[in-house]
């Protein structure tokens, strides 16, 4: 984690990949996979990041931060000029944020507001 916090993402990725090999506990493994996803997000590798967030959630479906990060990626992955695709990405973002909010109702205020404004989810 030190390498990641210092911005040395290549070293951090190597450390996380090595740590996942012997780790058998699904809960602990989920956090390693989540952290790999974080690094890929920071590097702008959103497809890889989504893959690792999905893998983390397969092992631990109670990671609201993974749902949130997936929603953020979808929210910003809008292709200009194609409103159909943009709408699909927005809807996917909404689904991920709903799951994050369901797990931690007091968090993700900005997401909650976006869901209300876009009428994608009635929260209250």
UniProtKB/TrEMBL annotation:
Keywords: TPR repeat
Domain of life, source organism: Eukaryota
Pfam families to which the protein is assigned, alphabetical: TPR_1
SMART domains: TPR (SM00028)
InterPro entries with a match to the protein in the record: TPR-like_helical_dom_sf, TPR_rpt
TPR repeat coordinates: 30-63
SUPFAM superfamilies membership: TPR-like (SSF48452)
NCBIfam families named among the record's database cross-references: PRK02603.1
Entry protein name: Photosystem I assembly protein Ycf3
Organism: Rhynchospora breviuscula
């Amino acid at each position: 984690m030190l390498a990641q916090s210092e911005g040395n993402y290549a070293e951090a990725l190597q450390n996380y990949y090595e740590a996942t090999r012997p780790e058998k506990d699904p809960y602990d493994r989920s956090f390693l996979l989540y952290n790999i996803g974080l690094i890929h997000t920071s590097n702008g590798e959103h497809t890889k990041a989504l893959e690792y967030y999905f893998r983390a959630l397969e092992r631990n479906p109670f990671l609201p931060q993974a749902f949130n990060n997936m929603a953020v990626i979808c929210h910003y992955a809008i292709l200009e000029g194609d409103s159909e695709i943009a709408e699909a990405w927005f809807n996917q973002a909404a689904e991920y944020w709903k799951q994050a909010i369901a797990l931690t109702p007091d968090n993700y205020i900005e997401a909650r507001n976006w869901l209300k404004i876009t009428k994608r989810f009635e929260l209250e």
